Amino acid sequence: MKAQALYTDLAIYYDFIYHFKNYQKEAAEVARLIAENKNSQGSELLDVGCGTGKHLEFLQDRFRCTGVDFNPGILALAKQKLPNVRFAQADMSNMNLGRQFDVIVCLFSAIGYVKTYRRLRDTINGFVNHLAPGGVVIIEPWLTKDTYRVGTPHLAIYDGKDIKITRVNVSQARGDVSILDFHFTVAEKDKPVRYFRDKHELGMFDHQRILAMMKKSGLEGRFEPSGFMKDRGIFIATKPL
Prior knowledge:
Blueprint: H1 14-17, H2 23-37, E1 44-48, H3 54-59, E2 64-69, H4 72-81, E3 86-89, E4 101-106, H5 117-130, E5 131-139, E6 153-159, E7 163-170, E8 172-174, E9 177-188, E10 194-203, H6 207-217, E11 220-224, E12 234-238
Parallel strand pairs: 1-2, 1-4, 2-3, 4-5
Antiparallel strand pairs: 5-12, 6-7, 7-9, 8-9, 9-10, 11-12
């Protein structure tokens, strides 16, 4: 996977850009889902696609946490923020951490970055290999072809005292892949305005095909349409004891 500007040049602004997300509330909901579905006895949690560690910030007191991300720049920020959490750089489609976890979470639609069904299959199989018997996997998917609206303009704004950020794009697609061609402007006190163009491509995966992959890999999965963000829902899957 190619490292986008959002995870490199713009990494220090990432939490400003997504200031609207209530990570504490989402982490509490994740903890509830874990309590209701996990049958293993341990408390080891792996956050795949952890970003700057915002979910881990609110999970680290409940679980022994490890974070994985593909992008070293954003991973460095997570390490600075959460010195008591273990981190590793890895591609979720072929990671090999050499150990198992009681919980694996993949949130904020990070799973979409695997882009193809082949890499999605490899990712799910990797999750199974890293999951302890009785453990639970929680995946927040990206939009599907039915819920993604091609041609829709989008605007996000961060209006801080000394930092102003805008992000605009018009939704595009190519087959099963959504294309987010972001245009960022960053205005910071006593600095010239900077502009970044940053293209992201995320796979739009059919929910039934995801569930079929989970079943084939040995997981018992289900999809709940009520998730953290509009039209995304949540997958919950367990590994038999």
